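Appendix B, Record 12. Input sequence as logged:
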Amino acid sequence: MPYTESAVIYDHMMKEVDYRGWVRYLVLLMRVAGKESRRSKIEGERLCEFACGTGNISLILSRLGYDVTGIDSSGEMLEVARNKIARRNSNALQLVHHDMVTYCSEGAFDRAVCVYDSVNYISSADALARFMSNVYKSLKRGGVFVFDASLESNSLSDASLFIQRGKHKGIYYHRKSEYDPKAKIHTTYVRVKKDGRVIEEVHREYVYGIELIRKLFTEAGFEEKFAAGDFTMLEAGNTSERVHFVLVKPDND
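Logged structural output:
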């Protein structure tokens, strides 16, 4: 299963990721939805991060004033997140061990986010549709959902097809990635050696087109405010490597 043995070294493998910059971008995108982002306005607002992993994004959002709930299917990743929360004494962050596709908390949240290819781990259009529907149900009227998806251009680029080797906390790892354009599946293999054991995790990301994603969240009831390409404020297109969608649950739902 993905992110079990590799959970304790996940942050080391992702050390180049600018999580603070990503959160700044998310806040900027939420402004597009017409929602205030000053701290005085967001304190106490409930935000759900789907596929929160080791909690990097959730922790930053909680420091901004959001009452954050992080959802993830990996107990090992959540354990890393819990250790961070304990070290930072963060009371405004709750963690829930649950598959993000089936999680639903009726009308509980003002905002929701799901980042870093997480929707690409959803293995079928039917499951993606179910996810969109459950996020919609989990938001209050007027709630905002910002999520990203990695597009085929990203999988075809040299930057996304990599080999990484290293050692951290006495654990050796080897990470490589490949893309099957016919099946539209981007596979990353993570081989971990620790305590004399060698374990290989297989991470599969399923590449969806913009129009299919748009069809599914529209059918769920969302209104699209913006689709931003490649960490810019420019409209995304089929040649973008990553798209961030900004969606709103209508007030009159």
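Residues 122 and 128 are 6 Å apart (CA to CA).
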